[in-house]
Structures are given as structure tokens and as C-alpha cells.
Amino acid sequence: MNNDVDPSRKRKIRLVVALSVAVLLAVALIYTSFSASTQAKEPSQVLTAAPGTKTEMNGTVVPGSIKQVGEGITFEVTDRKGSTQTLPVSYQGAIPDPFRGGREIVLTGAYEHGTFVGEPESLITKCPSKFTTNASESASAGSESSGSNG
């Protein structure tokens, strides 16, 4: 009696095993990517969080609030949708070029003694969308003024 497995059946078994491993790896990747993501909090939510809890904050820098303090900066942020309540922020580390008042930022840190203390090298500045109404109007005005110079 011959104990050899038919070559076509052997290929099918290998294919099933390979596809099963690929599916398991895909599921593991999806699981880790969703479990690793954190929900960024608005400044008004950070104010109600437990002090000292590491948080990712997403807000808008209050224009005119940025001040150089020693090796770092201090500034204030508000909720992205507009809020009268501001949150003081202290940060030391690299400052992105587009960082300025009115820009949205993402910063990881903790709320301590009335101030959100950002972790070094965690400040991210979001660039304004070129698809907003104001950007569209200024872009069309720029294209009208740059007509043919003949």
C-alpha cells in the first residue's frame, strides 16, 4: 500500500493552511490597531478628567496666547467647535513650523495643577483644510488676480 498523498491534494492542503494563517494575521492586525487607538479629548473634556491621567488632547490654539517660557512655551487652547472656556498648556520640545494661534493641535500629556502639561516631542499641528469655504474663496481670489500677463 502506498502512503504518498496525491500532489493536487497536497497543494490544496498547503493553500488552506496558508490562507488560514493569512486570515489570522489580518484579524490580529485589525484587533491591535483598534485597541491601540485612543480617542483624543477636547480641552473641556480634559478639564473634567482625573488629574495626572495621560491623555491625547485635540484643540484649537487661542490666538495671541503663545508665550516663550525658558526652554518651552505656554499657550491656551479651546474646543475645536468653539468654546469660551480655555485650557492653559505648558509644552517643552520641538515646535512644528505651522504652529500658531488659530490652528488645531494634537498633544499628548496630563492635566496637572490647572495646566495641561504636554509630553516632549508630542505636539502635532494640523494644517488647515484647503477645502474649507475661506480657503476656497481666497484660492479663487488668488487665481483671478493671477490672470494672463500676456
State the secondary-structure class. alpha+beta
Q: What is the level 1 CATH name of the largest domain?
A: Mainly Beta
* CATH topology heading of the largest domain: OB fold (Dihydrolipoamide Acetyltransferase, E2P)
Question: How would you characterize the largest beta sheet?
Answer: 5 strands, mixed, barrel
Helicity, in percent? 25-40%
Estimated radius of gyration: 26 Å
Just name the CATH architecture of the largest domain: Beta Barrel
Shape: elongated
CATH superfamily of the largest domain: Nucleic acid-binding proteins
**Uncertain residue ranges:** 135-150
Total individual domains: 2
Beta-strand content bin: 25-35%
Short précis:
With 150 residues, the chain is α+β, with helices and mostly antiparallel strands.
How would you describe this protein?
- This protein is of the alpha+beta class.
- It folds into 2 domains: 1-37; 43-126, OB fold (Dihydrolipoamide Acetyltransferase, E2P).
- 33% of the residues lie in helices and 26% in strands.
- The chain has 3 helices and 7 strands; from the N terminus they run H-H-E-E-E-E-E-E-E-H.
- It has helices at 7-36, 43-48, 133-145; strands spanning 54-61, 67-69, 72-78, 87-91, 104-112, 115-118, 124-126.
- The chain has a 5-stranded mixed barrel with strand order 1-3-4-6-5.
- A hairpin with a 2-residue loop joins strand 2 and strand 3.
- The longest helix has 30 residues, at 7-36.
